[in-house]
Amino acid sequence: MSAAWRRLRVVLWVAVGVVTLGFLLALEIAARRYGQPGPIGSPVNDLISAPKPGPLYGGLALMMVVLTWRQRFIAAGAAIGIDIVFLLVRWAAGAKLSDCHILGSGALWVILGCAVIAVTRRTGPERVLLLKGVGLGLLLVAGRKTGDTWLLITSKARPTVLDQYVATADHALGNPSWLAGRMVEATAPVGTHLLHLVYAQLAVAAVVVALYQLRDVAVERRFPRHHLVRTFLVIGLLGPAIYMIFPVVGPVFAYGPGASGTGGVQWAAADLWPHTAPPLNLPHPMPYDGITPRNCMPSLHTAWATAIFIHTRRGPRVLRHAGTFWLIATLSATLGFGYHYGVDLVAGVVFALTIEAALRLSHHGWDLPGIRMVGHGAIVFGALLVSYRYLPMEMAGHPWVFGPLLVLAMSSVIYGYVRTTRQWEPTAASTPQPELQPEPV
User: pLDDT tens, 355-379?
Assistant: First the structure.
């Protein structure tokens, strides 16, 4: 690598860091305007207050991929010990404790402690590797906090939603959320409990897959060029920006009783989900409450589950089966609980494949097939959003035309991704065959 290219990479990384910091500050200011801590203030509060433990211990697990087994046991023990001390202090002070918000501060303290050790006690490549591990853990924590802030902003900044447009366009696919909702009701309580578990623990599945991909970092002393965490974070960063452009709350809120204490019949266009399909009326924007996130278009749960499915294809058989199950169960949950329309899922698949292709292209090298694939995915995604917004009546009026077109558009992106990425796979060198020699007479 030439010195000029090294300098250019440093400049690019500095620019990315500055832009990221500015973005986080803007989100923090916006969240403070609505009376909530943002992606910077919330982790600071988690150092003392009782946070939700999942993201913090997930970040600690990712950070520990750079440590030896002995160091991992020490880090995990220190995190648990700190949390026990905090728990006893809170209990002695009479602080109100939530069942799911009693641990987590210890994990964050250990991550920050490893950052201090990297700066003060490590040098050279070892310092860089440990700082990369710390950065990976903090990225997971910051990504979760950034997503929560985005959802808050969407509910406050977008007082009207476009659910009527999406529900009308969804007639082209036969209103799959209504059908899936009735099927999930028929499988209660076993089916609903299983799907709730899968839907709520998507991040845990992602951490498990990421840990498998990063299992050799401590031995090889380097990270792989591409892994699931990168895709997961980029999807979570870009997706909410689409929420601001295309605010949608979902069928259970816009056409049903709402869920989890938000929304409700008083805000719904009609109480129809899941037993009565929405009527074909001219759609228009409708006001909704200032609490429910506008987080449907595209379905990021679908995008994340698609990314998990892709990244498990190279794993052992049990991991491949788990990735397939998680994708199918996530799609069933998003539709069956009324959180998404069918067209949301189509957009989510295209969104995920386009981002995954772009990230893989960035480390493979910008060749023409890869650029063509990313451009095709971006064009299809934009065309989907435009058609949902401006052609919903035409889509609903001609389902036998637009339904297959939606599936074909999604399938073209899937085919393009598979065809393009297969060209990037290293091929085993063929074993040379000895030439046939004439037999002696």
Answer: 999 998 877 777 888 899 999 999 9
Helix (H, G, I), strand (E, B) or coil at 295: coil
Q: Mapping DSSP to helix (H, G, I), strand (E, B) and coil, where does residue 383 land?
A: helix
Report d(CA 219, CA 39) in Å as an integer: 33
* Res. 430: pLDDT tops 50: no
Structure tokens at 93: 């002070």
pLDDT higher than threshold 90 for residue 13? no
Bridge partners of 286? 161
72 CB burial (10 A radius; 0-12, 13-18, 19+): middle
Token pair 């001609």 is found at: 398
At residue 235 the predicted structure's pLDDT band, cuts being 50, 70 and 90, is: very high
> Please, are residues 325 and 205 in contact by the beta-carbon 8 Å criterion?
no
How far is residue 403's CA from residue 387's CA, in Å, rounded to a whole number? Answer: 12
Give the HSE-up count for residue 398: Cα atoms under 13 Å, Cβ half-sphere. Answer: 8
Q: Which of 323, 292, 17, 16 is nearest to 163 (CA)?
A: 292
Cβ-based neighbours of 327, under 8 Å, separated by 6 or more: 305, 306, 308, 309
Q: What does pTM read for this prediction?
A: 0.88
| CA–CA dist 248, 344 (Å, integer) | 10
Would the pLDDT of 102 be above 80? Answer: no
Asked if 256 contacts 271 with a C-beta cutoff of 8 angstroms, the reply is: yes
* Length reported for the chain: 441
Instruction: Please check the confidence at residue 37 and state whether its pLDDT lies above 90.
Output: no
The mean-pLDDT minimum among 48-52, 232-236, 237-241, 253-257 falls in 48-52
Residues 6+ away with beta carbon under 8 Å from 428: none
**How far is Cα of residue 353 from the mean position of the Cα atoms in its chain?**
12
What's the gap between Cα 147 and its chain centre?
Answer: 9
* Residue 102 contacts residue 89 (beta carbons within 8 Å): no
Closest CA to 396 of 272, 255, 282: 282
